[in-house]
Design a protein that fits this description.
The protein is mainly alpha-helical. The chain has helices at about 5-20, 35-40, 50-55, 60-65, 70-75, 85-95, 115-120, 125-135, 150-155, 185-190, 195-200; strands spanning about 170, 180. The protein has a two-stranded antiparallel ribbon with strand order 1-2. A hairpin with a 5-residue loop joins strand 1 and strand 2 (about 180). The protein is globular, with a radius of gyration of 19 Å. The structure holds heme C (4 copies). One heme C binds near residues 83, 92, 158, 162 and 164.
Length: about 200
């Protein structure tokens, strides 16, 4: 955390204990920042995950808080500070915001908005293993196991009625029903899958 030093030290101790008790080492992973992911996940023929993310809403989520629309919402809500400085807004517009400390992890940039590790989980451990796969050709590593499982709740943590711009009819299901959020349709909108994998190759 950018602001708090003491709890981090305690946490390192907890993780040490957890390690001793035999928990998965992936739990000890730290946030690395999306620029790190770009190094391995931006190949055009594999889905260009970084550029795809960068071109869509999540990457702009923090910037959005500086827009005239956001400032108007902030005024209507009577916020003391502009939205880009208010935890009330920042908490859903950036990655891994921690309300207790009012901060984000060190390597997370506010400007990156809602970035890779918000959904996939802290990536430091994954990166260490990814290097072994790519540079040492280690085939024994299960890379999927280093990533957080993404469920509907991963998204509805932010995509819910607490959002000032929540539209209960934003998504139209196949049968015509309108809902504020639909996991499957929303996933399609942010799709950055690897076409090589999808085709089984
Ligand atoms: C040193 C290279 C490297 C870096 C850096 C890296 N990865 Fe990976 N990643 C891999 C490899 C290798 C795989 C396994 C092959 C594949 O699925 O493309 C993988 C797979 C994945 C997968 C798919 C896992 C699955 O379900 O099969 C996700 C999601 C992922 N990485 C996210 C990230 C994120 C987020 C970051 C940044 C925090 C990141 N990666 C950084 C090498 C890397
Ligand atoms: C940390 C909060 C957060 C999480 C978690 C999150 N989002 Fe978002 N999402 C946002 C914000 C904020 C925006 C608006 C960004 C903007 O327009 O500047 C947004 C916008 C979107 C949009 C474009 C608007 C729309 O609804 O059509 C889609 C699609 C979307 N998110 C899908 C998802 C999916 C799918 C997940 C889960 C896998 C997810 N989001 C997880 C905060 C989040
Ligand atoms: C509970 C999470 C959450 C909170 C809190 C939140 N937002 Fe958002 N914001 C979202 C999501 C999700 C979206 C994507 C559209 C939607 O579903 O509302 C979004 C989109 C937006 C947009 C873009 C609207 C558009 O469709 O282009 C603006 C502007 C915005 N938020 C401003 C704010 C401001 C200002 C605050 C603080 C007063 C705030 N948000 C607090 C989750 C949140
Ligand atoms: C809003 C949530 C969200 C964000 C932000 C996000 N992803 Fe993903 N990512 C997903 C979802 C959902 C999938 C589909 C697989 C799944 O459901 O686990 C996915 C799949 C992937 C895969 C696997 C592709 C495949 O077909 O094997 C990789 C690699 C990946 N993401 C990397 C990234 C990188 C790198 C970033 C940042 C530049 C990023 N993701 C940002 C939600 C997200």
């Amino acid at each position: 955390m950018k602001r708090i030093v003491q709890p981090l030290a305690i946490c390192a101790l907890c993780l040490g204990l957890a390690w001793g008790l035999g928990f998965d080492s992936a739990q000890a992973a730290d946030f690395a920042g999306s620029s790190q992911c770009k190094v391995c996940h931006n190949k055009k023929d594999e889905g260009a995950q970084y550029d795809t993310w960068k071109s869509k809403e999540h990457a702009k989520a923090f910037e959005t808080l500086k827009s005239p629309e956001a400032i108007k919402i902030g005024e209507e809500k009577g916020l003391e500070k502009p939205p880009a400085e208010s935890p009330e807004c920042i908490k859903c517009h950036v990655t891994a915001f921690d309300a207790a400390s009012n901060a984000v992890p060190d390597k997370i940039k506010l400007e990156d908005g809602v970035s890779c590790e918000e959904c996939h989980g802290p990536g430091s451990e994954h990166i260490v293993l990814g290097k072994k796969v790519m540079f040492q050709k280690d085939t024994s590593i299960d890379m999927a196991a280093t990533q957080a499982e993404i469920t509907k709740e991963t998204c509805t943590k932010c995509h819910n009625e607490e959002s000032p711009t929540w539209d209960p009819e934003r998504y139209t299901l196949e049968d015509g029903t309108k809902v504020g959020f639909d996991f499957e349709l929303a996933k399609k909108k942010i799709d950055h899958s690897n076409p090589k994998k999808a085709s089984g190759g």
